[in-house]
Every structure is written in C-alpha cells, then in structure tokens.
Design goal:
The chain is built from ten helices and 21 strands. With 395 residues, the chain is of the alpha+beta class. A hairpin with a 2-residue loop joins strand 5 and strand 6.
C-alpha cells in the first residue's frame, strides 16, 4: 500500500509555512516504478517540491533512468558529462567525481573511498564554509559545534545548458556525530540547530510569496543574466557569512580570462519560474552566479506610484545586482523556513530543482566518511516565466 505522509520537521520550522513542503513516500520502489506509479510520484514532486524514500536500493544506472523519466529528452549531466572532472578551475571540481559507467551520476561526499563503482580511489571533500567564505569560524568555535551554510544554489550550469528539472540524491554511507549549530553571522542573530552534514532546502514559492508588493512587481518583470562559465568566474571570489551572496570586492575572474565562451550560450532566465503542474511562481535565481538584471518597464496605464523601476532598468553594477537579490531572497532562508534533512543510509531524495534552493551544511572531519550519489540532467528546455496574466496580477 502506498502511503504519503508529511515530513518530520525540526522544532525550528514554522509548521504552517512548511505544511505543504515535502512528503515521505512509502510502499513504492523508486527504481522500479510502473507508469501509473511514476505519474503519482511526478505529480507529488511538483506539488510538494521534495520527496523522501527510505531504505532504497538504487544502483547508478537505475538512478539515472529514474531521473531521466522526469525529462525524457534530457541526456547529459546538468554540467555536461565529464565536464566538471576536466574543468579544474571550476569551484565544483573538488567535490564531484563522475561514475565511469554512468557519467550522468556523480560521487560526492567526504573522506577516502576505495573501489567504488569503477573508481579505484576517490578522495572526497565535504564542501565547507572554511573554503569559500570571506570570514570563517575559529577552530575553537567549530570545536564547540558551530558551523555555517556553504553556498545556497540551484543545480545548473547556467551557461550553454538548461537547468535540470529534478535532482536525485542518494545516501549510501552517512556519517554520525553530534548536532551542530549553524550561525548565520549576518547581523540577524539567527541560528539553526542541524544534524551532522544535512542538506538544507527552502521553497522558492515561499520566497516569492513573502515579497512585498513592490518587490513582487520587480520579480514578475525581472530577468537575470548569468556570467559565462559562472563557476570559474566566481572561483576567486568569497561568499558572505550565510552563503547567500558573493562579497563584491572585484575578485571575480575577468571575462577575458575565462575559458573560451560565446555570447549566444550565455543564459538569461526570468526571476520567476512557473511550476509545470501547479502553475505557481517560484523565485528561482542562483544568487552567486548572477551578473546582471533586466527589469521590464511597467505595462502601459499601470499605476507607477510607489513602484520600483517603473520605466524599466538594466542593472550591471555587481554590488547593486547582489544587493537587490539579497533583499529578495534573504527572508526565505530564515531558520523557520529551512528544512535540514537528517540523512540515513539508503535515503533517496528527489527534489524539484526548478522550485527550491538548497545548501550543503556542516563541518566534517577527514574520518567521517560520507558517500552519496547525485544525478541531475541538463533540461531539454528552458524554464517558463510569468504569463501576461501573472504580470497583470502582480504589477
């Protein structure tokens, strides 16, 4: 019998705000779904953003096949097959190891792993704030259990390839340890208690819903232009303390020093992506890869009093771009809106990559081995933005 039950939320969560977020699915084997079962899973995913399956057996080939069912025309890993392995300047390079027989699936985690799916030895590296943040916690603070978010993001190349529709994340070996406390260190005083090395998720539908009317008007009219090869571009820059933005210090790699790129392959996406099943709007912006913002002028005969950018705008100053995005996104990563998943071995999470932001969290020692398989596939199409009716409604 199939059971659909709400996720077990942490005590820090606002249960009302997360009432429709995420579901645990019992009674189905995700690697062996018939068509009716898959349709149920697909509908649930777009309605709730995240699905959890416990105690799964999911070899890499089955994980790839499952992920592909959500976008049958997709073929390659979200950043391109083997591309991350070969791009040593990318900030992603240290964290992803391609499964040789199934290059759409990546090995991620922490510690040294031997003889894994055709990989003789993999020295896995847990993504931690100490590598990427401008300021870091002291050894004494970390020894007391304090930690930070790493980098809030969506899974997407954001150059040449379209964003994946879903990501599947499968826990094979999960480290144990005491709970840690995430410090935001952004002046808010916010802290969040989390299990060891969780993955944190927030709904970008909630992110949009929380905006003021003036910012909703900007969002419904806004488009974001991403930098070419954004993960190389930002590789020399540092992040703010809560992992939601890049410090603007002029440290990005100049465009002329990036790997060869073409203007036609640069991605420009709407700020709001429409959910393919519910029709709801998600504020889906990768904050650390954004380079420019376009805001369309208000429609003719619209009320302009109190509106931001009523005549439209093209923001090219990185500090201004990042300040606007931060203002729009920061409220939704407050502790009460965050779901930090406490992993168990053989957990499978499928999440709507066009409807959430997620983040690696926590600090691990070298002997805390973490082994996961991740799969997402470059989309066969680009996200759809707001309709004319949406624009009329929100401006």
């Amino acid at each position: 019998m199939v059971e659909i039950i709400p996720l077990a939320l942490p005590t820090s969560a606002d249960a009302a705000s997360l009432a429709s977020f995420g579901r645990e699915v019992r009674g189905l084997s995700p690697g062996e779904l018939n068509q009716d079962e898959f349709q149920l899973v697909s509908d649930l995913l777009y309605q709730h953003g995240l699905l959890l399956f416990r105690n799964c057996h999911l070899p890499p080939a089955q994980q790839y096949a499952l992920t592909k069912r959500f976008d049958p025309a997709s073929e390659t890993y979200g950043h391109g097959n083997n591309e991350v392995d070969q791009s040593k300047r990318s900030i992603l390079h240290p964290y992803l190891k391609t499964i040789p027989a199934v290059p759409q699936v990546q090995l991620i985690g922490n510690g040294t792993v031997y003889g894994h799916e055709g990989i003789a030895q993999a020295n896995l590296k847990h993504a931690t704030h100490t590598i990427s943040h401008k300021t870091v916690l002291s050894e004494d603070e970390m020894s007391k259990g304090y930690t930070r978010f790493f980098r809030w993001h969506i899974d997407a190349a954001l150059y040449n390839l379209s964003p994946p529709k879903v990501t599947t994340l499968y826990g094979i070996q999960v480290p144990q340890g005491p709970k840690q406390t995430v410090r935001y260190d952004d002046g808010s005083g916010d802290e969040l208690q989390v299990p060891v090395a969780p993955t944190a998720f927030v709904s970008t539908k909630t992110m949009f819903d929380m905006l003021s009317p003036e910012l909703k008007s900007v969002a419904v009219r806004g488009r974001v232009k991403y930098a070419p090869h954004p993960y190389v571009w930002m590789s020399t820059a540092k992040l703010v303390n809560n992992g939601l933005a890049v410090e603007t210090e002029g440290r990005e790699v100049p465009y002329e020093e990036l790997p060869p790129w073409e203007e036609s392959k640069i991605k420009v996406h709407p700020m709001l992506w429409k959910n393919a099943v519910t029709g709801e709007l998600h504020f889906q912006v990768h904050p650390t890869c954004a380079a420019e913002i376009y805001v369309a002028a208000l429609p003719a005969h619209s009320r302009k009093e109190g509106e931001l950018y009523p005549e439209g705008a093209h923001l090219t100053d990185l500090k201004e771009v990042r300040a606007l995005l931060y203002q729009m996104q920061r409220p939704a990563i407050a502790p009460k809106f965050v779901y930090p998943h406490a992993w168990s071995e053989k957990d499978l999470i499928i999440f709507h990559n066009r409807g959430l932001l997620h983040c690696i969290v926590g600090t691990l020692s070298e002997d805390q081995v973490r082994v996961f398989h991740q799969c997402n596939l470059a989309g066969s199409d680009d996200p759809i933005g707001p309709s004319d009716d949406d624009i009329k409604k929100w401006v």
